[in-house]
Amino acid sequence: MAATDTRGHLLAFLTIAIWGTTFVSTKVLLTEFQPVEILFYRFLIGFLALLALRPRHLKLASWREEALCAAAGLTGVTLYFLLENIALVYTTASNVGVIVSVAPFFTAIVAFFAARDEKLRPSFFVGFVVAMAGIVLISAQGFDSVFGGGSIVGDVLAVGAAAVWAVYSVITRKIGSFGYDNIQMTKRTFLWGLLFMVPALFATGFEFGIERFADPLMVANMAFLGFGASALCFVTWNLAVKILGAVKTSAYIYLVPVITVAASVAVLGEPMTAAIACGVVLTCAGLLISEWGKGERKAAADKE
């Protein structure tokens, strides 16, 4: 393996290692912050970090491009992370981490109907059924407490977050075709996301509550989400894609549920039952089945 490829694999693994533990970090912050407060502070830090990297204002070619950036901010920042953070109030970090990993399924469906550029192969449907069986196993414990606001509420919200992320993914694919600097466009998306958060901030009685940052644990976790997961990971992920290509890099996404579950058990002491373990295995297997042979077909198509 060339030294450049090794660097690409390390960058991809670093990104996934951080993304896989964000659910745990958010769970810790929920002891002092409301879901929307975590969301606001996280992306404010991320926006300021990207602003430092790209201080120049970028003028877009048309209002349609601006509208797509706004849509990306609404779906990929405000709605997705708000649903994810609220889900973490009701269910475990393990559950949320595994469930939102099925976002590629929803992305394929949205891309098929919106752009007609994604073929839904038989393996996709087989993988979808297997992964959904895994989610049912993971969520089974919540069905007994539906009327008491149990974990099923959080699991449903996590599925909603995965669906919203699918819409965001299709939007960003279109934005990427404009040819602008990636960091500039991410900074713009973050800004739109922050603007869309304002109504939710007022509705929930948001207070800056600076005194909460006197706790080093809160500061460390907020900085981790802002600088690490929201700003740094964007750069490292795109560098990995540039070195390895999209197919090889995307394979690392399948490690997210494993890392999330391991971190949740180790840091938060969340339970690991046989049903949850089987659910994690089925969900990961479903994701792999749905992607089976995609890389080979893409390579063959590129040669034609």
Automatic annotation (TrEMBL):
Pfam families: EamA. Belongs to the EamA transporter family. This is EamA family transporter. The chain crosses the membrane at residues 36-55, 67-90, 96-115, 122-140, 146-168, 189-206, 218-239, 251-268, 274-293. It is found in: Cell membrane. Residues 7-139, 154-289 form the EamA domain. Keywords: Cell membrane, Membrane, Transmembrane, Transmembrane helix. Its main location: membrane. It comes from Raoultibacter timonensis. The lineage of its organism: Bacteria, Bacillati, Actinomycetota, Coriobacteriia, Eggerthellales. The keyword Cell membrane applies.
